[in-house]
Amino acid sequence: MTDKTSKVAIVTGASRGIGAAVAERLAADGFTVVVNYSGDVKSAEALARKIEGKGGRALTAKADVSDPNAVRGLFDAAEATLGGVDVLVNNAGIMRLAKIADSDDALFDQQIAVNLKGSFNAMREAGKRLRDGGRIVNFSTSVVGTRLETYGVYAATKSAIETMTAILSKEMRGRHITVNAVAPGPTSTDLFLDGKSPELIDRLAKMNPLERLATPQDIASVVAFLVGPDGGWVNGQVLRANGGMV
User: Fold this and answer.
1) Where are the domains of the chain?
2) Tell me: the pLDDT tens digits for 162-173?
3) What does the alpha-carbon distance between residue 21 and residue 234 come to, in Å, rounded to a whole number?
4) Has this prediction a pTM greater than 0.90?
5) For residue range 225-239, what is the model confidence (pLDDT) as tens digits?
6) Regarding the domain delimited by 8-186+218-241, which CATH topology (the fold level of the hierarchy) does it fall under?
7) How many other C-beta atoms are found inside a 10 Å radius of the C-beta of residue 113?
8) Cα dist from 14 to 42, 58, 124, 232, whole Å
9) Active-site residue numbers?
10) Buried-exposed string 32-47: b where 16+ CB fall within 10 A, e elsewhere
């Protein structure tokens, strides 16, 4: 993937947070970026304008990743408009925290639908439709390693994604498509910060030896490595981008 000027990357859940940072970084690296969103059209459009204002190329595409037909439509739109897809960054996800004994069916079902089924829907489509030489990057979480209380259902969806990542990487044999996962630790996004006290945020920040939260750009840099020319020999792996927390 040395010539990136014609490469197309779909980033799911890209309107805010880590997804937005990934979309910005890949656009700066020369990819045409499809900014996927499910509801926040205003943020998605603002991000696309920001990317284009810096000389990049981006288009927005609405799709709820938990809906397989919507994910097919997302790839259809990218192919029709841009000619094909080279990279999938499977970033869309939700986090609902509760102890397992206190988790209701809605908490369980929503996270399975978006995090697990949504990632599967996009992996399945990419497995069929990515151009040879492409890259798939899924998102896990470092809580798979830390196993913190209240993260049971969320971490379970991400554990499954790690397993599918390794298996899909083998199923892509012969097509020069790599499949990896990034597992961030605590990162300063709305998803992470929402509902947490300053004391808890500070305690979580100091769990790693670098003693700070990640920025979304820290995580975007790892994704950029995996989809760029220097990451081509990394395949079937989970990179824990967490400052050494676990």
Assistant:
1) 8-186+218-241
2) 999 999 999 999
3) 22
4) yes
5) 999 999 999 999 999
6) Rossmann fold (3.40.50)
7) 17
8) 12, 11, 19, 24
9) 154
10) bbbbbbbeeeebbeeb
